[in-house]
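Thread: "does anyone have the structure for this chain?"

Original post by V.I.:
We have the sequence but no experimental structure in hand. Need at least a predicted one for the grant figures.
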Amino acid sequence: MTAALHEDRPPDGGWTTDDLDALPDDGIRRELVDGVLIVTPPPVFTHQYFSSKLCSALEAMCPPKFVIVAGVEVRISKTRTFIPDAVAVTRQAAARHPARFHPSEVTLAVEIVSPGSVSIDRVLKPALYAAAGITSYWRVEPTEDYRLYAGSLAPGAAVYTSDGEFDDVVELTRPWPLRFDLTTLRDALQL
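Reply from O.Q.:
Generated one for you, tokens below.
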């Protein structure tokens, strides 16, 4: 089905993760939503720099049973797969050195909103991450204050409950007790 890249229409029945696996490793960021291929431009410097600073802050507070990793695929199903900006995964899953993680291995998914991902990061991804059972979801809005929206999934719930909105000190008990200064991460962008 990879011939669809060379045609004007998607494969019959939509894209699958098998189709993605058959594509060359060309650095293009591809995600799937119900068989629809989503291709996004590479993140810009400020997005990646902030992401690396956030990952470092999380790693410093992360309990030993979890590992923080950036830009690794979370494969939800044959027709749904995403590449969060950062995830906290079990150390056991990370020890496999996988190309992708299963949602049951992910305790936190973080998306940093880009101009081309606003609706997807605000509406679609939290709904699908929650449906897949990922227990915590953070969305970072890169406004002038870099606001972080934190949510968690109660047992048996289908949607995230807000754990708060932060534009300075982030203090949460889920996915583990943590506290860090978001302004320090934001200020690091002032090179």
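V.I.: this helps a lot. The radius of gyration is 17 Å.
O.Q.: and The helical segments are 17-22, 45-61, 91-94, 118-131, 182-187.
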